[in-house]
Design goal:
Elements (H helix, E strand, L loop, with lengths): L7 E3 L7 E6 L6 H6 L3 H7 L2 E6 L17 H12 L7 E6 L1 H10 L6 E7 L7 H10 L12 H6 L4 H10 L15 E6 L9 H9 L4 E6 L11 H13 L3
Parallel strand pairs: 2-3, 2-4, 4-5, 5-6, 6-7
Antiparallel strand pairs: 1-3
């Protein structure tokens, strides 16, 4: 099995109060999602360490050989094994597909995250559309809008790796069937096409008797929400209230 974890630990200058497990989105990187927008800096200033993990097949040394369809399951398994080694309490932070990964961790019965902030997550998996766009250069019939043009235009990940990742993660996402085991903050842009059906996530969280907060950032879309000062400050405040 290929190595899945190529993580970076960003520690605060003062004593660590908790650790945030952060996972970026499809085609992205830790630098794009968390460093440049300033969220890691803001979390460090509030006393949080950030353990940032790239998605599989998204780093230069990740390799491209995957022998079966267990990529997501294996990744979640390695994350679950890593969490007990981080400075507790540990919270989850994910953007787009990274938020999907955090959601899957939260839905694990013995999961160890005390809270989570999920950015740009909806109730539909769009990896089939991504695979179609990469393979053909055309929008799919089920997704007439070319949802991933901006991602593909700015990614540093090899196209073959992105296609393989999208093909291996194009499963059905059925969050309504999940029991969520920690408080969650959902953040999305007002014009985020990929998170328009996030109300289904709210239903699943509240049905699990967990706190669910939701922020729609005015004037932002799926990508630009990451640079929102309102999104950053709201995320840090949520983590501060739910450190376990």
């Amino acid at each position: 099995m290929m190595p899945l974890l190529n993580a970076q630990l960003f520690e605060p200058d003062a004593t660590t109060r908790a650790t945030v497990l952060a996972i970026h989105g499809f085609g992205g990187s830790t630098e794009q999602s968390w460093v440049k927008p300033g969220l890691i800096k803001k979390l460090n200033a509030a006393g949080f360490a950030v353990y940032a993990v790239p998605l599989p097949l998204h780093t230069a040394n990740a390799g491209s050989q995957v022998s079966d369809d267990s990529l997501l399951k294996a990744f979640i398994g390695q994350l679950s094994a890593q969490i007990p080694q981080l400075s507790p309490p540990v919270m989850g932070l994910g953007f787009s597909f990274g938020a999907r990964v955090i959601w899957e961790l939260l839905a694990t019965p013995d999961q160890q995250l005390t809270s989570a902030v999920l950015i740009g997550l909806g109730a539909t998996n769009h990896m089939d559309a991504a695979a179609h766009e990469i393979a053909t250069g055309q929008a799919s019939a089920h997704h007439p809008a070319r949802l991933f043009d901006r991602v593909l235009a700015h990614t540093a990940v090899p196209q073959d790796n992105l296609l393989r990742f999208a093909q291996l993660t194009a499963d059905n996402f059925e969050p309504g069937n999940d029991t969520i085991n920690a408080p969650v903050l959902l953040i999305s842009g007002e014009f985020d096409e990929l998170a328009q059906d996030s109300d289904e996530l709210v239903t699943a969280i509240t049905a699990s008797h967990q706190i669910c907060e939701k922020l729609a950032v005015p004037g932002r879309d799926h990508i630009s929400v990451l640079t929102s000062g309102l999104a950053r400050s709201t995320a840090v405040k949520f983590f501060t209230r739910h450190t376990g």
